[in-house]
Design brief:
Helices cover 83% and strands 0% of the residues. The chain has 232 residues and is mostly helical. Helix 2 packs across helix 3 and helix 2 crosses helix 5. The termini are far apart.
């Protein structure tokens, strides 16, 4: 027991704590930029597939099919090590966020498309019959209902994205996992270091879970108030 405590104490030196904090910041930066990429591309892709936009829907479907069929680690390696073969050189941060963003965007695309398809087509037709244009009908009728189905799986996807960011250490990016592995190479305390890493990842993802739940409650509360006003 004492030896285990001593092993944990060896990790929490000022220098090693600094490395872990630095790695945590990098992990948060990678996750945030990747999330932004996945939101934008995934939403556009999901909408294009839902609306069956010529060419765009086929390209979006190809992206989803390829991305879901190839492990994330291989995609990271392809972007970082493969693109330079054709003259496209990215630093480890850009390669990491691009691969993560594109990977997550494929799943966000499926979530958005499924959420839009969950809304009865009659709702859109009724809105159009009342004089609303296509974009207005989508914004005021379809999207508010689709968000109820989209938010929960979208939150789960973003949690998975943060956990998946641990793989960017494979492309030499000094994230939380990479810094942990550097500490292991000096202390040989695999169990202790990975325990600390697990706790840090848990805190990050749990905080995100609380934010997502708050957004869901706020959105659903707003929907109930809107419905009540319409009834009155």
């Amino acid at each position: 027991m004492n030896s285990l405590l001593e092993s944990f104490k060896a990790i929490f030196t000022p220098e090693r704590v600094g490395l872990l904090l630095q790695g945590t910041v990098v992990t948060l930066e990678v996750s945030a930029v990747s999330l932004l990429i996945s939101v934008v591309l995934g939403t556009l892709s999901g909408w294009a597939r839902f609306a069956r936009v010529p060419i765009l829907s086929q390209l979006a479907q190809l992206h989803v099919t390829l991305t879901r069929g190839i492990p994330l680690l291989i995609q990271l390696s392809f972007v970082y090590f493969g693109l330079p073969k054709v003259g496209i050189v990215l630093d480890s941060f850009l390669a990491g966020v691009l691969a993560l963003g594109l990977y997550s965007a494929a799943y966000v695309s499926e979530i958005v498309r499924g959420g839009l398809n969950s809304v009865d087509l009659g709702q859109l037709e009724a809105a159009r019959s009342l004089g609303l244009s296509g974009p207005k009908a989508m914004r005021h009728v379809v999207l508010p209902q689709a968000l109820v189905a989209i938010l929960p799986p979208l939150g789960n996807e973003y949690i998975s994205l943060i956990l998946g960011s641990s793989l960017v250490s494979a492309v030499t990016l000094e994230d939380l996992t990479s810094e942990g592995q550097a500490i292991i190479s000096v202390t040989y305390s695999q169990f202790e270091v990975y325990t600390v890493l697990a706790l840090v990842y848990f805190v990050i993802t749990y905080a995100l879970t609380l934010v997502i739940r708050a957004l869901e409650r706020r959105f659903l509360r707003g929907k109930r108030v809107e419905v009540s006003r319409r009834v009155i």
